[in-house]
Design goal:
Length: 578
Amino acid sequence: MQTYNWPLIQNRSGDSIESLVATLLRREYTDARRLNPSQGDGGIDIARSTPDGDEIWQVKGFTTAMTDGQFRQVKRSWERFVQQHVTPGRRLIVRYHLVTPWSPTEERIAKFTALTSGAAFPCQWDSDAFLAGLADRYPETMLRFTHGEGALEQFLTQKAMLACSPVERGESLTMLEAIEVRQDALDDLRSTVSDNYRIEHGTLTSANTCEIPSPLDHGPAVHHRMTYLGDSRWKYESVVQTSPDAAEIEPIKLSMVFLAEPGTPEHEAVRAWFEWGFPLEHAHVKTATLGGPFSGDESAESTVSISARASDETPSLYLRCTTTDGENRFRLRLIVAERTVGAQTGWVRLVVDTPERTLSFELRFKEGENAEAKGQMGNAEGRNPEAVRDELESVRRISATDIISVETGSGDSIMRVFGTVLPTALEAIHLPVAQCLTNLQVYTAPALVMPSIPEITDSQFGYLSLLTSIYGGVAHHWTWTDLTLEIPNDDAGRDRIKTVVDAFASGQHLVKVETPVFQLGDRIYTIDHPLTSAAHSAKVESGVNPAALRSGDTFRLVPGSDAGVTTAKLVDWVPGII
């Protein structure tokens, strides 16, 4: 074991011995947490939770023979620890350590033993040998502490050369095994870069060449760096805390200077992010990382995108409609779709939807000012039409004289609005589409869902309304002009054509049975229950003898005495009979 000149180390370093000891302990025990670095917390510098209770370290940076005054400091720390944590039963203690670089004499050990004799848990004094063992296990921490980053860089260079040197083994290695040996050496080297963080790394392949793979929202990493390798592949480096208090001891910050010119759309987007936290895309900045293993003094010009993250901190909100007489029309739960906070102002912006997404609101809150609200029709695409219909039926009851309020789960109003006017699209298309699909659901097994309303064309909406009317029992009457038939190649097909022609000649109707298929926006819908369309009168076009036609020839059917057609739903139909 190497010996260390602790007084010299103390003089050479700009940091305290207590800080070094705390860092070594936190590297040894990744679940250890450093408390108040300057004064401790009631006689505790480092604490570590175990299933049986807390393990405690009190660190004193005494590097030379302890004086009586210094031992009184030890005594006061012990008494404060007992008074604040042991006697009140605030903590269940499994072990207590006094840590000093100086190795105590028998006399001091005896006094420490007498001081802690009343404790119901083991107490021990760890000194030079204990710390030297930790220092040997983490030489990079000692180099960083005693000689600064320059010596650490030299240490890392030596390690890197070893990691890249040829692999020497008695047995033969495959190429992959040799690569893995070097990679393990490089991983060991990477772990020495920081006392507070480790770097997890690898490669990812994105499904979209223009899309950066997003890190996990609830992953342990606090900083990610992605590098594009080409061919949709990305190298990722994720910084993970090595202890629970790493971010407190060495915070990681990103310094950004925005370069957008005033008056440009980019400048307005930056201002919206400053004020309301709007997501920001491809803003030109100068950036520098401060703290952590990626820290650097030089800033670099780049583009930055800042996205809004989901938050579990948003309270439950409700939309209430009340008449001027105090009558409650409805109370709907509001679903928070987006929550942003101004980067500079702290102003809060919420985007909320009604449960079926029929209405969407943007709420803005400034401290000390009245809240602002904007509402519009929402996007209910993919929702159950019946639930959407019911919600819209409630919403359509809003009158211009009603009071619309947003309130918390306890009923406290956070904003009130008067004179609300509903969008005309609610009555014109949103509600009718939901009503039609709800009515048609009875006639088909597949679950019908709401389409994207803005993508529906007038002709699509018209056909939906027509189908709903027909299935509702109102037959549709229309006229036809002609129908072209082709003579089949096979005998059976030709016989069928002859049967059809003979039926027309005897006065029978032309009947078509179909299961309707219709489109709303990009969605395709099918109705199982068939429709029948019957032409009142049909005949072969004059001058044509079907018997003389050959395979592949065509002829036309045209209306006879009546060009009318009636379309209705097939009665007495059960699934599977057609």
